[in-house]
Structures are given as C-alpha cells and as structure tokens.
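Worked problem 6 (solution included).
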Amino acid sequence: MERQEKQISEVRAAEERTLIEKAREGDRASQETLVMRYERRVYALVLGMVRNSEDARDIVQETFVKALTNLQRFDLAASFPAWLMRIAANSAKDFLRRRGREDKIFSYETDDWSVEDFGTARGTAEAALSARIDSGIVERCMDGLDSRYASVLTLRYRDGYAYREISDILSIPMGTVKVLIHRGRQELKRAVKREVGEL
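Solution. The predicted structure is:
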C-alpha cells in the first residue's frame, strides 16, 4: 500500500513537472491547468488573510500572473504548490501592508510559550471535530476565526503543509507558526462547540 502511494506520488510529480515545463514554453492549456489545479487552495489561503472575497479574488489573479511570469525562476526540484502559496501569502501581505493591516496579522508574542503548551492531538480541535459535525459548520467557524489563525490552519489542515513549510510560505518564525496553530485550534474548537453545543 505504501509503495503504491509512493508510485502514485512520483507519477503526479512527473506529470506536474511536464505541465510546468510546457507552461514555461508558453503553452496556454498548461498554464490554465496549473491555475485550475491550485486556484481554490490559493483563494482559501488569501481569503483567510484578507477577509474580503473581492480583494481575495484580485490577489489570487495577481498571484497567478506573478507565478506564470516568473515560472522560469522556479526550481523544478522544489514543491510547486509551496512556491505558489508563498507568492500568494506575500501578495496578501503586501496588500495588507498597503492598507496598514499587515502588522496585525503575524506579529505574535512567543516568549511565554513552551513545548508543553502545544499538547497532543487529544482534546484539540481536530479530535473534537467528530463525524457528526458537518464540514459546512467547520468551514463557517473557520471563516469566523481571526485571519492569522485561519491562514495557518488552512495551510496545515486543508493543504497538509508541515510547520517548516508554513514558516517558509508565510515568512514567519517556526515558533510563531506553532503558537498560531495551537491557539487557532483552540479557537476553532470553541467556535464549533458554540455552533453545535458541547460534544
């Protein structure tokens, strides 16, 4: 089973490299395929950061223009989704900086936190979100979270990025990522409980 998953992953990676190479050569169909493949993920991240759907759509468009324009610079040995998400996060942060809001998103005190504060999966939001909770409820609760929590939770749980990758994508320290994920899970758990009552 594990070997089969590895083979599937390798095939997908090879397909994506071919797609990127064609897109670099100006193949419109390949460029459009890349956009369609990642548009929803990029939008979810950006919307979590800027909290306005119209602004998010503009930033997503800007992200793909930047990515396709700079595709020659992309290292084919690297992760394309992580590279794309980094462009999206930076575009969103630039937008917020222009609006004077960027410093409110990722500035965070981490000095008073220790490893023990992060706990284990038991009792955290993902454990609390049992099968009886509709995914629509979780989505609504995510939409109501502070943007700094929504962005890291989106990257971690919806997109499956590791802490180090999230740190790179958002250009914030690893300690800040851990704090935001920890507190974000707590906030999400509380929001879900308010929505459906005690589990």
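Discussion: DSSP finds ten helices and no strands in the chain.
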